């Protein structure tokens, strides 16, 4: 079943000349983790903002969880989607952690007794309950993004959209955020759409879509996409460590497998190669 | 740097801390009004007793209150001196041109000084024992009647709380930009007034640009989280009016009655 369906989408910003999207089509399956990659300005943020109804298309049809996106249904559609943006500070609305998690619940007019329960559960979920009364200045970027995730979890959405949500974080913060996303995807079967320049994040996905100037140029499983090596930089990604290592090995005239290897796969392959000799 | 403006709140668990912010806000205003009813030393003694009593009940360090007076000391002294030298009446001790030092002048000067100190102490007590956000909440509640004349009360209060939330963030950013500009040789707080104004420009421009970007991001994020105006939202933070708040109000009313009585001593 498709949870997001985009048909013949056409869009352009009022102040721009060229179309950002022209007859664009995309289907996203329920429970899928889709990574969207592409160089800056390729239209990734614009695309997810269209899905969330934050921008209105010129023509075409967007359906989210069975609801056709129209000016009347936009709030219903938004209630199915939770979005985390790039800058941790600029999406922190509340004066402190619990207040920020409650913001979305207040908007949805959830009764206070239930808010108290949901705020606590969501914060425990992301490991931030003990920081409930902390102001944003006392939190790291990773902690702020975890609070943003708690704000989303509390609202029980079906889809989580990450627009470069980990790009301003240190490796540790990035890991802690990805850990939560992985769990939400695998345990609760939430659909995840993540825009990223980070290969590790993209390799968590079941499917990778490469955007270039508002067009899908590749749509495949991560292993296939990342095996193109050198072209990765062109599509806006750093090649993964294992790919870089492979290229070095080829220079040493060692035969390496063609398909993409994860870090773990690389380790396995290396020790197997080593013990064969 | 984040502590300068509104970070005066000192968390605690006294009776005063636990009072409903609405009660504290109302009583602070009430107090400022009744100060102007005091007209003899007995009434000032009464008001000082009330203030000191409130401070003791709040169990906060008295040094905070002295600190509250210090930045205003020149304004206070100036006003007091004006009172002393320009009001006449009673025995005149000294005269020079338009200036004269009279008995009433001295008394008035002392009263003005007391008024200043009382107002500063009480408002310091309010901000020391009440989180800025709680004050914003109280303002929202107290402004509610204004909704009838189409004042966007919810929006004003959300604006206020977002502004409060971003003060430390923008302070941090200011500090960062200042350091960046210093490393390029800009001197802050040095040189002629013209030079100082010039030094502020490279500070304000990036700060404005970044604030507008933040505002745009924040608006998008709020919309994505389902914000569509203040109407029909529920509230996570609530404040309950308790017996202690009623008792506090009663104490202030009693003080007012005694004060009215003392006026005609
Ligand atoms: N608010 C806007 N107004 C006008 N043009 C915009 C706006 N936001 C993005 N664009 C333009 O749309 C294109 C796609 O931008 P965006 O979706 O942000 O790309 P990405 O997220 O992939 O980096 C770019 O050419 C960008 O300049
Ligand atoms: Mg983007």
Question: What would the keywords be for this entry?
Answer:
heterodimer, A: 277 residues, alpha/beta, Rossmann fold, 2 domains, six-stranded mixed beta sheet, four-stranded antiparallel beta sheet, 11 helices, 21% strand, B: 265 residues, mainly alpha, 10 helices, 2 strands, disordered N terminus, binds adenosine-5'-diphosphate, binds magnesium ion, Energy-coupling factor transporter transmembrane protein EcfT (chain B), membrane (chain B), EcfT (chain B)
Give your account of this protein's structure.
The complex is a heterodimer of chains A (277) and B (265). Chain A contains 11 helices and 10 strands. Chain A is α/β, with parallel strands linked by helices. Chain A has 2 domains: 232 residues, P-loop containing nucleotide triphosphate hydrolases (Rossmann fold), CATH 3.40.50.300; 37 residues, no CATH class. A 6-stranded mixed sheet of chain A has the order 6-7-8-3-9-10, with helices on both faces. A 4-stranded antiparallel sheet of chain A has the order 2-1-4-5, covered by helices on one side. In chain A, helix 3 packs across helix 4. The N and C termini of chain A lie far apart (48 Å). Chain B has 2 domains: 140 residues, no CATH class; 81 residues, no CATH class. Chain B is built from 10 helices and 2 strands, in the order αααααββααααα. A two-stranded antiparallel sheet of chain B has the order 1-2. In chain B, helix 2 packs parallel to helix 10 and helix 3 runs parallel beside helix 6. The longest helix of chain B has 32 residues. Chain B is flat and about 70 Å long. The N and C termini of chain B lie far apart (50 Å). The site of adenosine-5'-diphosphate (ADP) has 12 residues of chain A, from helix 1. Chain A: It is a peripheral membrane protein.
